[in-house]
Request: fold
Amino acid sequence: MDYQNRAGSKFGGGGVASQSASNADRRERLRKLALETIDLDKDPYFFKNHVGSFECRLCLTVHQNDGSYLAHTQGRKHQTNLARRAAKDAAFGKAREGDAQFTGANAVQVRKNTVKIGRPGYKITKTKDPLTRQQGLTFQLQYPEISPGVVPRVRFMSAYEQKIEDPPDKAFQYLLVAAEPYETCGFKVQARDVDRREEKFWSWWDVDSREFWVQVTFKTDREERYSGVPGLGGGGGRGR
Reply:
């Protein structure tokens, strides 16, 4: 095979560079460019987690080394999120300024700033109802330093609402659990219909042990198939 005369290559160059080699070269150029303008010690979105990886708190991405994070800061996603954050802060500042003018020059502005302290510990257990054969999941989360008076909240989010995985996978959905001052946890589960009956889908906050429990039970294949047929679909609502 002639490796020197392929389309797009120079004479004697050995052929066109592979896609992986081009991506590696691009990341290295972006990393060097970021080193000239970014000080990681002063970057508010740069965070090193407990396993040694690096996270971008703005884009909610995880990187194996600082070079990968620096290359990420020069990408379109990070730059777009920076612009959105700047616009949001500017709009919020104008709104706060208008409130101050309305309430008087001597009014004290109170702004709630919550410092996130990391993710809670958690445990996930697979369940199966012995009678209905329904499959499910039990989530147990520990919040030893939760803010006083705060009760964890839970909701489902579709794959099209999240911004971490692109393109979104419609075969999955996300269970979100939020409790200040901890970061919001997102669990990726199958995009199946959730049985919303009280004994099948419930949550419980143990104030003494500071543990939050969530039980999720999915509908059976038959219930999903006949969910729109009266008398055949069974109880519960859709979880998407």
